[in-house]
Design goal:
Layout: E1 9-13, H1 18-29, E2 33-38, H2 41-51, E3 55-59, H3 65-78, E4 84-87, H4 102-129, E5 134-140, H5 151-171, E6 177-183, H6 189-198, H7 204-211, H8 223-226, E7 253-254, H9 276-284, E8 295-302, E9 306-314, H10 325-329, E10 332-334, E11 337-341, E12 347-349, H11 352-365, H12 373-386, E13 398-407, E14 419-429, E15 443-445, H13 467-470, E16 487-491, E17 498-499
Parallel strand pairs: 1-2, 1-4, 2-3, 4-5, 5-6, 15-16
Antiparallel strand pairs: 6-7, 8-9, 8-14, 10-13, 11-12, 11-13, 13-14, 16-17
């Protein structure tokens, strides 16, 4: 399953076993690069070996601020950036008010609150450089429903939850989404410690059966089930600020607003991801607009709901009803812009804000919903970030980006569509007219065709104005040396004078 995590760079703390290990494995399976840490050297080495390619780790005690800062700096430098920070390190600290010591309470605070504070502060410079920065703090349902037998955890998880909320508010202007996933009863090594402390004379089977009696599903969750939050962590536009929901059957709880209700988003079968060899071959001679990257951005719009289901998915065919409005009334708008690779490894886009505004004008004129500029820019940036390996580095080469929007309501009545999809695809491309360097172009002046008439869309990004734009230049010339023109010079519809 392609979840749009390919190319993302993630740190997971407390990841040598249990839930942290499962999260790291899930991220790696989806194409992310992962750096982990934990306290036990043998367990770190074993986890890295089990995780395989794309993983590396270091021995770190997150209670030591210096060790934690050094690890995050190393990991971000090693991965050449950071997109996702998962704070998972924790510990089992059972104890009531009568039995808990101040030292134990403060030690637990250091792990479950202060380490989050330190890790986010250290990672912040790299997260601000990411086009899709995410912080996920793994908490506990005790943050909402305290248990007197776990007083320290109940107090400190509540503090961590409120730290998460405060960080989410403060870092939102930077486009950094900060979420807390509060898990319920998940069978991790921590629970083995709890068993040993609370009921050493009871068998593990009986202990866990007794603990599961209060769980609606009747059993503990498994780390792999909770790690499925990454199945929902594909890139979304910053405006949605939805928490990646946990899939644990053991009452896992997410503490940020849910995404909007699913209103039948467009589905499609993704093609297989290109191999490194195939990608290299495509980049060696990209041509123009003939090869496409591994992913595409999609956002759906439904009347009465608005924009929803912001996502990056695998590139593939789009299935539409034969009665979709786009087929019958040309209700589609598009844009075109480029991203360029620079010598320092950075990738720059060119004047995307202008394209976003022109796209809004085109959609307005065609009766399509206007996409907020921030969603336009986020979709472009996040697609480029995930498919950065598809950005060519040769002279006059770029990653051509094609945002487009189309009406897909299956109805033949002439009325505004109630279902619309916005998409962005990317194509590594060379010079538009071909050849090396600046080349002369031949121009065909046509007296028979016009590009647009008064009252039609005021930009070239509408399908309704495009057929006359390309039809003449693809017709053979009425001469013995008939050729196709590189460019066409039009006459205005109203005055029949020459226009660009």
């Amino acid at each position: 399953m392609d979840l749009g995590l390919s190319g993302r760079r993630a740190i997971v703390t407390g990841a040598s076993k249990g839930l942290g290990f499962a999260i790291a494995r899930e991220l790696l399976a989806e194409g992310a690069t992962v750096r982990i840490c934990a306290r036990n050297p043998e367990e770190v080495d074993a986890a890295v070996a089990d995780l395989g390619a794309g993983a590396a780790g270091r021995v770190v005690d997150v209670r030591d601020g210096g060790q934690l800062a050094e690890f995050i700096a190393w990991a971000a430098a090693d991965m050449r950036g950071l997109d996702v920070l998962v704070n998972n390190a924790g510990g089992a600290h059972p104890g009531t008010f009568a039995t808990l010591t101040e030292e134990a309470l403060l030690a637990d605070f250091n792990i479950k609150v202060l380490s989050w504070f330190r890790s986010v502060r250290t990672a912040l410079p790299w997260l601000r450089e990411s086009v899709a920065p995410r912080v996920i703090n793994i908490g506990s349902v005790f943050a909402h429903s305290p248990d007197h037998r776990f007083l320290s955890t109940s107090v400190n998880r509540a503090a961590g939850l409120n730290l998460t909320r405060a960080l989410a508010q403060e870092l939102a202007p930077d486009g950094i989404l900060v979420n807390c996933v509060n898990i319920g009863s998940v069978r991790t090594p921590q629970w083995a410690n709890i068993h040993a402390k609370r009921a050493p004379g009871q068998s593990a089977e009986q202990f866990f059966a007794d603990q599961a009696a209060g769980i609606p599903l009747g059993r503990f969750g498994e780390p792999d089930e909770v790690a499925g939050w990454s199945r929902s962590s594909r890139v979304t536009a910053p405006a949605t600020s939805a928490a990646p929901p946990s899939t644990s059957p053991a009452a896992a709880h997410s503490d940020t607003p849910d995404t909007q209700e699913n209103h039948a988003p467009l589905r499609h079968p993704a093609r297989p991801r290109a191999s490194a060899a195939d990608r290299s071959a495509a980049l060696a001679d990209p041509g123009f607009g003939a090869t496409f990257s591994d992913h595409m951005a999609l956002i759906d719009w439904t009347a009465g709901v608005g924009w929803h289901d912001h996502r990056i998915v695998g590139y593939g065919p789009i299935a539409l009803d034969p009665a979709a409005a786009v087929f019958h009334y040309a209700q589609e708008a598009f844009e075109g812009l480029k991203a360029y690779a620079h010598a320092d490894g950075s990738i720059w886009r060119f004047r995307a804000e202008v394209n976003a505004e022109r796209f809004r004008r085109s959609c307005r004129r065609l009766g399509l919903p206007e996409l907020p500029a921030e969603d336009f820019l986020a979709s472009v940036d996040e697609l480029v970030a995930i498919d950065r390996d598809w950005v060519p580095t040769g002279a006059e080469q770029s990653l051509y980006l094609r945002p487009f929007m189309f009406a897909r309501s299956p109805v033949l009545a002439v009325k505004p569509s109630t279902q619309v999809t916005y998409a962005v695809i990317a194509s590594p491309s060379g010079a538009y007219f071909g050849g090396d360097g600046v080349q002369p172009v031949d121009i065909w002046f046509t007296r028979d065709y016009t590009r647009a008439a008064q009252g039609e869309p005021d930009s070239p990004s509408a399908v309704a104005t495009t057929p006359p734009r390309w039809s003449p230049s693809r017709r053979p010339r009425p001469t013995a040396a008939a050729r196709w023109g590189s460019s066409t010079r039009w006459r205005t519809a109203m005055w029949r004078s020459w226009a660009a």
